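User: Teach me something about this protein's shape.
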Amino acid sequence: MAIHFTKEEFSTRKSKVIKELKKQNLDGLLMFRQESMYWLTGYDTFGYVYFQCLVLTTRGDLILLTRAPDLRQAQNTSIIEDIRIWVDKDKSKPSDQLVDILSELGLEKSNLGVEYEAYGLTGRNAMRLNDSLKAFATLHDKSELISFLRVIKSPAEIVYVKKAAELADKAMEAAWKYAHSGQNESKILAEMQGAIFNGGGDYPANEFIIGSGKNALLCRYQSEKRNLDEIDQLSIEWAGTYKHYHSAMFRTIPIGRVNEKQKKMYEACVEALKACEKKLKPGNKVGEVFDVHAEVFDKLGYKKSRMNACGYSLGTTFAPNWMDWPMFYTGNPVVLNAGMVFFMHMILMDSDNQLAMNLGETYLVTNDGNERLGKKKMDLVIG
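Assistant: First, the predicted structure itself:
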């Protein structure tokens, strides 16, 4: 079976969720986030684009309601034993079948947590869910309940994160090798992703971001692929991925030569990242990491070019993106703890001069500070 953790690991996670449910006076949790299902049971699919729900009660009952294509998927990748199928047909309403399951579990008039903040639970399906359950139980938005538990990684998870970091390093080696004038961006992407697959890795939860010329100033993937000019700039954000665990990196590579503005932007990115590293330790707040990032950039005159967030948690995530909770932005009150994993990215986009400079690394928070998981140099490499 394609299960990546021990039964003991899953049992520990289940106990933590049940303990939290009881603490919040809930009788059960309706999970719609694929990350929650994978973390709790190993269930690995992209079938969450359709209605599917994993039910967990405080007694320990665990039932999955999904479509027929995911029956064997759940059997082969998870510890779930009770799998129910809703049938595709005109005007089907699987939320009504979910009510039948909850009734079978004796949950009428109960308090149920719901993961409303889920890519698989569309607005229409959420409305149908509320309609089906409005007279059955009291629903509470508990979208972050499992996210709070997932954010601190177990030793077994950290092994996977570190493997993902090794793969990210291999991808960077490929980028350095192929990023030169005349090369097409598609070739660079293919070599980077190939390095990860050849190392035993997976697809990431979102596309690698790549752009040259004016597109180097973009923070999202777009479909143009161009050949690098003799003098150019190339921005790439990517992640090594292993068993759905991510370790991301971000670089801007000057092509042909580097000018003085780019050098100063790079030096600012290094200074900001070093400041964030000092703040990334147990007891500090997530928002405080962003604040030192902004302080460095602002004093150096880059307030207009920086972002309003400088990173986020990483872990096991599914499409459409690898960003996890929580994010580095001002005022975020989440307290840092050992075992958390974060991607910190220093992004400068100078629209006036059409110049970009990016530097991003993934870190594990340790008992006395942090560990940078990427092992490659952070020097400014010229392609």
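Now, about its shape. The chain has two domains: 7-150, 155-372. The chain has a mean pLDDT of 96. If you'd like, I can walk through any region in more detail.
User: That's plenty for now, thanks!
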